[in-house]
Each structure stands twice: as C-alpha cells, then as structure tokens.
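Field log, afternoon session.

UNIT: design team B
ACTIVITY: writing a sequence onto a fixed backbone
BACKBONE:
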C-alpha cells in the first residue's frame, strides 16, 4: 500500500493556490495611496498587486507577498508571463475571487495562477535592495 501511495504522489501535478485573471493598473502600484497605506518598497519588492475584494477581507493580507505565474494566455498588449514576485498593497473591488491587478505598466487580461509566498524567500534579483 505504501508503494502505491508513493507512486501516486510522484505523478500528481503541482498546482498553485489560486487561479484567475491578471490585469494591470499602472507602474508603481498604489503605494501610500492604496488601501494598505504601505510606503513604496518597504520590503524591497518593486512590483505590487491589488488583491480581489473577497480575498482582501479586512486588509489582513496587506504586505504579504505572492508568486504569480502566467503563460501569456489572454488578450492584450503585454502578456503576463511569470514568475513575478509582488507585494499586496491595495484592494481591487471589481476583481473576482482569484484575480490580481498588477501595479505594472501593461494592458490586457490574462490567465494567471498565484500563491502566497514568504517575502523573505524572494530571490534578490527580484528585489530593489537587500534589507539588513
């Protein structure tokens, strides 16, 4: 029985935590003007996202980091292709469960998968500076 379960674990495909649409709301995100009132680059991660209303809840996700993956499937001029690491700094009231609105220049709506990711584990090429 253990061998059978081990066999199953090897062939079960890995999926990320959530899936939805990825859209854009402009370079730099909201920063201090967003729902989270976080200063820009407070954790060294330059990309920010607005989290959909349902998952945003009471703001307890503010400052958490996410790992976003996309394969460019969708419509628009700038496909979302990951990995992209970002910090939640705002709420997207019109987004549906699983959707993220990226604080980057771009245009379109693309299928994405994403998950919460420990900010301290984000590799340094994706950070603006090293926090000591």
């Amino acid at each position: 029985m253990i061998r059978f379960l081990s066999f199953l674990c090897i062939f079960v495909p890995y999926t990320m935590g959530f899936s939805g649409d990825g859209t854009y709301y402009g370079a730099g995100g909201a920063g201090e003007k967003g729902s989270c009132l976080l200063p820009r680059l407070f954790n060294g991660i330059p990309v920010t996202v607005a989290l959909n209303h349902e998952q945003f809840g009471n703001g307890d996700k503010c400052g958490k980091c996410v790992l976003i993956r996309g394969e460019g499937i969708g419509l628009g001029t700038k496909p979302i292709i990951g990995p992209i690491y970002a910090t939640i700094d705002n709420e997207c009231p019109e987004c549906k469960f699983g959707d993220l609105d990226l604080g980057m220049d771009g245009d379109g709506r693309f299928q994405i998968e994403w998950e919460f990711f420990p900010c301290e584990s984000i590799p340094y090429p994706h950070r603006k500076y090293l926090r000591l």
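LOG NOTE: Residues 4-14 have pLDDT under 50 and may be disordered.
NEXT ACTIVITY: expression trials, pending approval
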